[in-house]
Amino acid sequence: MAVVTATFVYDGDCAFCTTCAEFIERRIPTRARVIPWQFADLDALGLTQQECEEAVQWVAGSVRASGPDAIALLLQDAGRFWQVAGSALAVAPVRLAAWPAYRWIADHRHLLPGGTAACSLPQAQRDLLFGTDAPRRP
Length: 138
Description:
This protein has a 4-stranded mixed β-sheet. Helix 4 runs antiparallel to helix 5. By secondary structure, it is α+β, with helices and mostly antiparallel strands. The protein has helices at about 15-25, 40-45, 50-55, 65-75, 80-90, 90-105, 125-130; strands at about 5-10, 35, 55-60, 65. A hairpin with a 2-residue loop joins strand 3 and strand 4.
């Protein structure tokens, strides 16, 4: 039986998202690969650029989730304390409240700690302003 490596995909051009991903890598012991969508093989993951621009993504074999559902799966994968938090996030009433909160954060990420004005722009606009050859953060 093949071991499926989960992948958590975020927007690497957004400073707020990158700060959150760095926190995950430092503090949350997930087995998932945490990678910006700009460096991920989206076709192999079965994701589109639009999906990745709209929300973080979780892919583990045939299991796919986005936004707070992806975060819940990431936390459940991390074990112990984090698993409790991930399970709580997956409970129906919490999950229903998490989506509007996630959407608000995503829409205002440029105003949050670590955010920049570029965080508020869709990738197509970032490419127009900064060029498609602009260096990207890993």
